[in-house]
Amino acid sequence: MMKPWLTALPVYNEAQYVDEVLENVLQHANQILVVDDGSTDGTPERLDAWAKRLPESVAVVHHPQNRGYGAALQTVFAHTIQEGYEGVVTLDCDGQHQPCRIPEFIEAGQHADIVSGSRYLKVFEGDDAPPQERMFINRRITADINRRLGFSLTDAFCGFKAYRTEGLRALKITDDGYAMPLQLWVEAAAAGLQVTELPVPLIYLDLERSFGGSLDHAETRLNYYNQVLDDAIDLACREGRFQPSEGKNGQADSPCSEKSKRAAS
């Protein structure tokens, strides 16, 4: 018998938010996994205190060094599968996701393999204005994903998601960084997973958040995301994991066809 849904938070240097976020998450989730991705600001000690105080509800995994957002989620996915949970809800630990919406994601997860939060699907009262360059990149990449993979997404990068374990087993996630969602969408399309979006408010508490090194430059980040998307599609095509027939997401042709057309032109 599978365990009920897990709630998981990837964390890196969130000492100013982690206590308040966990307090709120505990009001809506019974089983919580926090993956500390090599934090150096006191976050690990705060998390260990939570796990010691509430061992039946809070589990913590520490990465000895910072490996990246994608690496933290890979740890979450592996734990979800290995421990036999029905699924997992992921949210960030920076205060930008509202824990009160966790039950909505779990409910939607009964009818889809992946439930993805969208900050652009609905306007909420009090929404923050997103940083223009982030919104521009999100829209560009989201449009490209929809065109190439047959989805109808409005927000390709939101970290507030629900994954059914059955669907997680079909994903081959290897990207350790912030571009991991791009590989995720390619893997979901290749596996024919059912995807739906759930509207969430636009909340930005830290407009200066770094993506790391050269990725803080918008054009460099966009080029990097495009390359990751190309590479993920190329790999799935070479492995023969895309089917040309229409699938669950309404794609009428394989993404591999576009590559073939470009090569022939």
Provide a descriptive summary of the structure in words.
By secondary structure, this protein is of the alpha/beta class. The protein has a single domain (about 5-265), classed as Spore Coat Polysaccharide Biosynthesis Protein SpsA, Chain A, CATH 3.90.550.10. It is built from nine helices and seven strands, in the order E-H-E-H-E-H-E-H-E-H-E-H-H-E-H-H. Strand 1 (about 5-10), helix 1 (about 20-25) and strand 2 (about 30-35) form a beta-alpha-beta unit. The protein is globular.
Spatially, the strands of the biggest sheet line up as: 3-2-1-4-6-5-7
DSSP strand (E) fraction?
A: 5-15%
The CATH superfamily label reads Spore Coat Polysaccharide Biosynthesis Protein SpsA, Chain A
State the name of the first-level CATH class: Alpha Beta
What is the radius of gyration computed over CA atoms, rounded to a whole number of angstroms?
18 Å
Low-confidence stretches are 245-252, 260-265
Order of helix and strand elements from N to C terminus = EHEHEHEHEHEHHEHH
- The total tally of domains equals 1
Number of separate helices: 9
Average predicted confidence as pLDDT:
87
Overall, the morphology is: globular
> What is the total tally of β strands?
7
Per CATH, the architecture is Alpha-Beta Complex
Quaternary form: single chain
Structural class based on helices, strands and sheet pairing = alpha/beta
Question: What is the rounded distance between the termini?
Answer: 53 Å
CATH topology: Spore Coat Polysaccharide Biosynthesis Protein SpsA, Chain A
